[in-house]
Specification:
Length: about 350
Amino acid sequence: MKILITGGAGFIGSNFVRFVLSRYPGYEVVNLDSLTYAGNLENLRDLEENDRHTFVKGDICDMTLLESLRFDSIIHFAAESHVDRSILDSSPFLRTNIGGTKNLLDLAKTRGLRMLHVSTDEVYGSISEGLFTEASPLSPNSPYAASKASSDLFVRAYHETYGVDAVITRCSNNYGPFQFPEKLIPLMIINALASKPLPVYGDGRNVRDWIHVLDHCRAVDMVFHKGRAGEVYNIGGRNEQQNIDIVSRILSSVSDVTGSDIAGLNGLITYVKDRPGHDRRYAIDPSKIESELGWRPTVGFENGIAETVRWYVGNRDWWGRITSGQYMKYYDVQYGRRLS
Ligand code: NAD
Ligand code: DAU
């Protein structure tokens, strides 16, 4: 089996590529990633000598390139993924998340391939009580969420119209190693380590349902191999937390690991202007993947956060090269070419 994995130099994609290669000794991965600001080849350093992993620097919007690649199935992570960026400029979101997904669907259709589309719980919008199921209406509120909802509908339409063997996963908020430090958890960790302000949007009481990235990877693997064509599977950790509680937990872990004074760390918390259209609460019902495929999250939140804090403390070089911008040059060094 040779799988095309798109976005495999990003946070979840790089964790997934590593997961698949170690779990399936007979599988090969073609890892297609255009290395936007969020793509980082250093995430894949340990796979450089692995001859079952081929990295291709390229854009999912480039149909000619896609047609030149050979593989048996597609797992599609590549996306513009950050809500705040989508509020500043939605154009790249429209291009990659909708246009790129449509290209991959065309390939899956022409070649008769299975395609797993990695989506998000944000397509459902905000919910004040209860849980989103796969039957909940799509009601996206940010340009990012609207682009993901549009791509989900294209996947559905290609399955209904052309019989494409497609499945969709909708996961809640991920955390863990290699997450780009623009997202809440890594941003708070590295700012706390650098004694910088910790910007909490609004009143800090927005709720997200957090899941460790490896539990997400295991779920994607199960849906890819056993999910029914045309179906959607929610993935969530049944782990709702208010943002301010997440920040407090991170600070107490940072204090445990580094010995920094907790009062000083708490003093870094800075309430800032709210995100426009900020969804108040996400909460996902993962009963379907639990009962149909037997998936369950395995990483407890307390341990998962403590481990993640230790990872960022132990990998200052990794995020230091992101904050300095140096990581963008890694591809040049590895491949002897210049980035444009
Ligand atoms: P990320 O921003 O860390 O990584 C995205 C990757 O896609 C990067 O490596 C980037 O270079 C690549 N990419 C972007 N545009 C591309 C293009 N046109 N062609 C090829 N590659 C391109 O994102 P992530 O957090 O790892 O998210 C991965 C996927 O999972 C996304 O589809 C996202 O919507 C979804 N998701 C994320 C979360 C989360 O909490 N992070 C939760 C649910 C679903
Ligand atoms: O729910 C899944 C989604 O989770 C994914 O589809 C997205 O790709 C991913 O980015 C994430 O979206 P969020 O907007 O929920 O994640 P973010 O880390 O940006 O923010 C989490 C919460 O923390 C949110 O309520 C906004 C708040 N926040 C975020 C940042 C970056 C802050 O209070 N301060 C911050 O500096």
